[in-house]
Design brief:
Blueprint (H helix, E strand, L loop, with lengths): L1 H40 L7 E3 L2 E8 L6 E10 L4 E7 L5 E10 L2 E6 L4 E3 L4 E4 L5 E5 L10 E8 L3 E8 L34 E3 L2 E9 L6 E9 L4 E7 L5 E10 L2 E6 L4 E3 L3 E5 L5 E5 L10 E8 L3 E10 L24 E3 L2
Parallel strand pairs: 13-22
Antiparallel strand pairs: 1-2, 2-3, 3-8, 3-9, 4-7, 4-10, 5-6, 5-9, 10-11, 12-13, 13-14, 14-19, 14-20, 15-18, 15-21, 16-17, 16-20, 19-23, 21-22
């Protein structure tokens, strides 16, 4: 009995020490288990989106109040050479891979044949003034703070979908950056609010219903009707003080999709007929605007015809209502492909 009592305190002390060690072990083991669990459910953060040897990062989309925008990003490649050959988005069915090239003192935007090369163990950068993903005929404006889903298709690596935030273009040191990023040295247009300019008669030609789409970014378009009472002519060029980058564009249908492209040879003005420039068809595309075009602004445009020569007109800037001017039809930029052949005889 005494032996049992004598051993009781010692045994209790040993049990207490063992219990303390066990509690410490359990506590430490619990931390390890929690770390392991966190490691399984929250992987280490990796910059960019991985697709095989490719890492896509720095993606962003330019906000717009009209129907044209652009996406930019960087692709790092740790393997063999590849190429970005296609892009798509739920916002529109008209997405093109574009580049900006310089010809003399002017620059122009065009599709990049074959897509964008991604060099082996190198990098591809899409940025204003260079390669970019052009989105046209947007179903709705894109606002700051939104996120745009983009699916990129690479020649070898395949497809990957990313989410790009919408944000303003960064300040590149030359004033407001733009779609195309080409610097302009021409003076800005005077802004005033007046009644819409009337028709302008120039020899056998009369230009009427001229207007320019309001925009909050650096891309817009001009529309008008040109009536001809004489021999056939062609509108071959246009210019404006707003920018040095002006192109004559058409919208063409390619199966289930449509795309915008420069119109080779200009816009024909048939003898004793007319040509209509309108959303979804022929239009004068103005890129690299020095500043947004606001409602009520008067824009000066010089038109160059193959035979008649140059004539300068003014056009009122106003929002696009979705209705073709004077025709009562819904025509979005890139929509209404039925209006493509717009050179018609005068009534």
């Amino acid at each position: 009995m005494k032996g049992t009592l004598r051993r009781g305190p010692i045994a209790a002390l040993i049990m207490l020490m063992a219990l303390s060690v066990a509690l410490v072990a359990v506590a430490c083991g619990g931390d390890d288990d929690e770390d392991d669990a966190n490691g399984d459910s929250t992987p280490a953060v990796t910059a960019g989106t991985k697709l095989g040897n490719l890492t896509i990062s720095g993606e962003w989309v330019r906000p717009t109040t009209n129907e044209v925008s652009a996406a930019y990003l960087t692709v790092h490649n740790s393997g063999e050479a590849d190429a970005l050959v296609k892009a798509s988005t739920p916002l529109t069915s008209t997405v093109q891979l574009h580049e900006v090239i310089t010809e003399g003192s002017s620059s122009k935007m065009q599709e990049k044949p074959g897509g964008f090369p991604v060099p082996a163990d190198g990098m591809l950068e899409l940025k204003p003034g260079g390669f970019h993903i052009m989105m046209m005929d947007l179903k709705a404006p894109i606002a700051l703070g939104e996120t745009v889903s983009l699916t990129l298709t690479f020649e070898k690596a395949g497809e990957v979908t990313i989410e790009a935030p919408v944000k303003a273009a960064p300040d590149m040191g030359n004033g407001p950056m733009n779609h195309g990023g080409m610097s302009s040295t021409t003076p800005g247009a005077t802004t005033t609010t007046v009644a819409a300019p009337g028709p302008v008669t120039f020899g056998n030609l009369t230009i009427s219903d001229q207007w320019v789409r309001v925009t909050a970014n650096t891309v817009t378009a001009a529309y008008m009707v040109i009536t001809n009472t004489g021999e056939a002519d062609t509108l071959i060029a246009a210019s404006t003080p707003l920018t040095a980058s002006v192109q004559l564009h058409e919208v063409v249908s390619d199966g289930a999709t449509s795309k915008m492209q420069p119109k080779d040879g200009g816009f024909p003005v048939p003898a004793n007929g007319e040509v209509t420039l309108r959303p979804g068809s022929y239009h004068i595309m103005m890129l690299d605007l020095k500043e947004p075009v606001t409602d009520g602004q008067i824009v000066t445009i010089t038109l160059t015809f193959q035979k008649a020569g140059d004539v300068t007109i003014t056009a009122l800037a106003k929002p696009h209502t979705g209705m073709m001017e004077g025709a009562g039809q819904g025509m979005g930029h890139g929509q209404g492909m039925g209006g493509m052949a717009t050179a018609t005889p005068a009534q």
